Amino acid sequence: MLVNSLGETIKDRRKELGITQPHLAELAKISTNTLYKLERGQSNPSLNVLYKLAEVLGLELKLEVKKTSIE
Amino acid sequence: MLVNSLGETIKDRRKELGITQPHLAELAKISTNTLYKLERGQSNPSLNVLYKLAEVLGLELKLEVKKTSIE
DNA sequence: CCATTAATCACATTATAATGTGATTATTGC
DNA sequence: GCAATAATCACATTATAATGTGATTAATGG
Questions:
Q1: A37: nearest nucleotide, CA–C1' criterion
Q2: How many angstroms separate the CA atoms of A32 and A24, rounded?
Q3: Is-contact B66 A55, C-beta < 8 A?
């Protein structure tokens, strides 16, 4: 996950699904401000917000061992 | 990502690496309280905290399209 | 055992994420 | 063009994550 790949991922996915920020914000039950800042990488979102967006967007959040790490 | 799989993942990984909560907290530059609650699923951590832990633990956070979602 | 450290927990404080509001600037469809 | 909606932005407020402190309870090694 690079610098703001997360916000980009959400924005790209939203565009793919053809929905607006206000609509997605409503569906995920977060404010447009929160979504706007998140997409632009201007925030440090909570896990809760990420989950709510992931849910609506059909995305999943994973935390796994780096394939590149030495085991 | 199930209910508290995230906290579990972090705890399990920490154990694998054989380090304590206080030590990991120090390495990741977060408080032991924050780590403790996160591992137990008693918090709604910020992305920042997750990144710092992932960095130290050799984990990566991914947000991707669900394989099960209809495309 | 028992001393030492780790983990758990409560509670107060501080920092900041999330929201609300209103304005401005794109963007889009007619 | 221009009306309507979307996206961007500033700023104040509210909710809450993160921290600090100190205590209690496990766990661990000597």
A1: D8
A2: 8
A3: no
Q: Does B60 contact A47 at a Cβ distance shorter than 8 Å?
A: no
Of B5, B9, B63, the CB nearest to A54: B63
User: What's the pTM value of the predicted model, to 2 decimals?
Assistant: 0.92
Helix (H) or strand (E) holding A7: helix A5-16
d(C-alpha B61, C-alpha B71), whole Å: 23
For B13-66, write each residue's pLDDT tens digit. Answer: 999 999 999 999 999 999 999 999 999 999 999 999 999 999 999 999 999 999
Nearest to A36 by CA among A14, A63, A59: A14
Q: Give the CA A8 to C1' C1 distance in Å.
A: 59
- Judge whether residue B5 contacts strand C, using its CB and a 7 Å cut-off: no
Separation CA B71–CA B69 (nearest Å) = 6
Rounded to whole angstroms, the Cα distance separating A4 from B41 reads 25
